[in-house]
Design brief:
Layout: H1 12-36, H2 42-54, H3 57-94, H4 99-142, H5 149-167, H6 171-181, H7 189-203, H8 208-216, H9 218-223
Helix pairs in contact: 1-5, 3-4, 5-6, 7-8
């Protein structure tokens, strides 16, 4: 699998050295795993599995946070649109408008409800996608047991490599590895792609996507006491 050039201008040789170091470290860990899961060390297998699962907090947190975010966004949309329609019906009932005006007004409310239906369907698909990812990751963790640690750690290694490639801006290579390993639901490619759009826009001196991201994550930024929008 050929690695693409780093967008930030880092030399391929330095990045390759870093990658080789990461792979060497992971290979050493894999060797330790192999030694620990020998047939004569059942307690070591359980201890190793327990320690591995302790590191998976972020693995579950990312899709779960996006799932909650999708639910909140859909709830806000439904509340806003239904409130507008109800107020529109009340205004029509209280006003002295002609028959034609009333029909036109009600048709506009019907169109708004149809738009809400489309938005709700899109939101439902987003929720289902995030729920599917949560389920896939739970199934992956549940599949770990002392008897199949080799396969489980092989998948975990590929997840780590995909994450590393994404953080180093090897987006295309990361996508190819995830697809060839059939682990799309176990990695956060979409999150990094969204971040890449903001970064690319900032490099082109466009702040609108970054400001939109700040507005979308306002509550989390406030909780972290980060006023990122002021710097934009």
């Amino acid at each position: 699998m050929e690695m693409e050039t780093v967008p930030n201008g880092s030399s391929p040789s330095s990045t390759t050295t870093t990658t080789n170091a990461a792979v060497t470290t992971t290979a050493a860990s894999a060797a330790a795993v192999a030694a620990a899961i020998s047939p004569n060390a059942p307690s070591s297998k359980l201890n190793l599995l327990s320690e591995s699962l302790k590191l998976e907090h972020q693995f579950l947190r990312v899709p779960f946070e996006h799932y909650k975010k999708a639910i909140r966004a859909n709830h806000r949309i439904v509340e806003k649109e239904l409130s507008a329609v109800i107020n529109g019906v009340s205004d029509a009932a209280e006003s002295d408008m002609s028959r034609d005006d009333a029909v036109h007004h009600l048709n506009s409310l019907v169109s708004r409800l149809q738009g809400l239906k489309r938005k709700s369907e899109e939101g439902s698909r987003t929720e289902n996608l995030q729920a599917q990812r949560c389920r896939a990751r739970l199934d992956h963790l549940e599949s770990a047991d002392p008897e199949n640690l080799s396969d489980w750690h092989d998948t975990r290694l590929k997840r780590i490599l995909v994450d590393y490639m994404l953080r180093m801006s090897y987006y295309n290579t990361a996508v190819k590895l995830a697809e060839s390993s059939n682990i799309q639901d176990l990695v956060d490619i979409d999150v990094f792609h969204e971040a890449k759009k903001v970064i690319d826009a900032l490099q082109n001196k466009e702040v609108t996507p970054a400001l939109a991201w700040c507005a979308d994550n306002k509550s989390r930024l406030k909780k972290s006491k980060v006023q990122l929008s002021l710097f934009l």
